[in-house]
Amino acid sequence: MNDVVIDFSKVHQINLFGITIMEPSTVLSSLMMTAVCIYAFFHLNKLGRAHRMYKQIQYFFLFMAIATAIGGILGHGFLYLTGKVGKIPGWFASMIAVALFERAAIWHIKPLLHQRNGLILGWLNYVELTIFFVLTFITLDFRVVEVHAFYGLFLMLFMIEIYVYKKKKDPGSKNIFLATLMGAIAAGFHALKFSFGDWFNYNDIAHIPMSLSIWFYYQGARHMTFYGEEKIVPEEVIEGDLTADH
Asked: Which regions span the lipid bilayer (predicted)?
């Protein structure tokens, strides 16, 4: 176990109606990400796309909303009540979210690969999530969650979309590239612990490009084309092509 004793008296906090809330700025910046996720989830739902690729992306935003809300409220605001155990549900939700978008990307690339290679990627997705779940539960170390996010979003999703873009010039892929860039910037702020003080620390700063990253993932989800036997071209892409023709 990765047990770290926290001196809560040294953590910035506020008291509202007799309730102590720790790291209130981080709670708010986490809920900012939650709001973007909820917006994306419901707006994608309105598009009514039934294919699994689109549904898995949609549920990426639902689980990421759960992860950021739990992370902000229990993992920061009420950490003194829940302890590190309070972080685990948010960590698991975020890993499920990453695995869902990764799986959607596998659907995106499947029609462009040999069937056997598509199956291997699909099974690898299940094995990966299982391994990281076990490692997270055993170690209770957030670095395991970070490594999983790097693997899923940077190594798998980003590399898959590079391949798809080379083959098809998919407009959704371009947005995913921007999302990856924003995610890398957020990771840099967090790794460097760049802060302007307790009330606007590296967590809060990193949450700004992370919110932008989520927004660009949403734009990517709106514009991705499925290249299977029954090709699915989003209306947004068709409308964009028609506008470009005039």
From this structure: 27-47, 59-82, 118-138, 144-164, 176-193
Give the pLDDT score at 1: 41
Residue 57: C-alpha distances to residues 50, 177, 189, 214 (Å): 11, 16, 26, 11
The residue assigned the tokens 């209770």 is: 140
**CA-CA distance, 184 to 171, in Å (whole number)?**
21
**CA angle (68 as vertex; 65, 74 as ends), nearest 5:** 125
Structure tokens at 82: 């829940």
**pTM of the predicted model, to two decimals?**
0.87
Euclidean distance between CA atoms 116 and 64, whole angstroms: 30
Contact 99, 122 (CB under 8 A): no
Assess contact for 108 and 60: CB atoms under 8 A. no
The predicted pLDDT at position 234 comes to 84
Angle value at C-alpha 26, between 24 and 27, nearest 5 degrees: 60
pLDDT tens track for 16-46: 777 788 888 889 999 999 999 999 999 999 9
**pLDDT per position as a tens digit, 40-65:** 999 999 998 889 999 999 999 999 99
**Topology adopted by domain 10-223:** Rhopdopsin 7-helix transmembrane proteins (1.20.1070)
Tokens of 165: 């873009």
> What per-residue confidence (pLDDT) applies to 12?
67
Beta-carbon count within 10 A of 71 CB = 27
Backbone angles phi, psi at 30, to 5 degrees: -70, -45
